[in-house]
Design brief:
Residues 3-57 form the S-adenosylmethionine synthetase C-terminal domain. Keywords: ATP-binding, Magnesium, Metal-binding, Nucleotide-binding, One-carbon metabolism, Potassium, Transferase. The chain has 63 residues and is an all-alpha fold. It is 40% helix and 0% strand. It has a domain at 22-62.
């Protein structure tokens, strides 16, 4: 749903996502390095806001 209050339209945002992220499950695993044995660390202290995890690293977007 689009309320018209954003700086970019829904179409523009969709194109940015398509240009920057491969959302196939295998590619998500590869991009975020989810095959590595990190799950003990996540279970102990959570998985958000910790710089050592790949999903916390910002990605430069192509517009």
């Amino acid at each position: 749903m689009d309320y018209g209050t954003g700086k970019k339209s829904t179409k523009e945002l969709l194109q940015i996502v398509k240009n920057n992220f491969d959302l196939r499950p295998g590619m998500i695993n590869k991009e975020l390095n989810l095959y590595s044995p990190i799950y003990d660390q996540i279970g102990a202290y959570g998985h958000f806001g910790r710089d050592e995890f790949t999903w916390e690293q910002p990605k430069k977007l192509v517009y």
